[in-house]
Design goal:
The protein is mainly alpha-helical. The protein has a domain of 73 residues. Helices cover 74% and strands 0% of the residues. Helix 1 runs antiparallel to helix 2 and helix 2 packs antiparallel against helix 3. The termini are far apart. The C terminus is likely disordered.
């Protein structure tokens, strides 16, 4: 996932809660990393290397599918527009105009 945890949430949270929300997200990712660090050797010892890697691959693919179908597209949108999507309550299908449409209407 790389920088996904640092870049994408910053675009979605409104400015007034962005710091708190990013602190929470950082805590969740660190907690999940700690769990993975302790669970992986158990899975490796119990099921072997091949099954362990298939489990990791399945979790990665699950994260990809969740991001693909549930996360809104923020390409060509300003930070204010992406924050407004969260306030609208419908992150996937928002009626917020893109920056291109705003420029054309002015």
């Amino acid at each position: 996932m790389g920088a996904h945890q640092w870049i994408y949430p910053n675009e979605l949270f409104p400015t007034h809660i962005r710091g708190t929300a990013m602190g929470f997200i950082t805590g969740v990712t660190r907690f999940a990393s700690a769990i993975g660090t302790f669970v992986f050797p158990f899975i490796l010892g119990t099921f072997g290397l091949a099954v362990s890697l298939y489990i990791c691959g399945a979790l990665l693919f699950l994260g990809f599918l969740i991001s693909l179908f549930m996360a809104p597209e923020t390409k060509n949108m300003s930070l204010a527009e992406t924050s407004a999507m969260n306030k609208a309550g419908n992150l996937k299908e928002s009626n917020i105009p893109s920056s291109e449409n705003v420029m054309l209407n002015e």
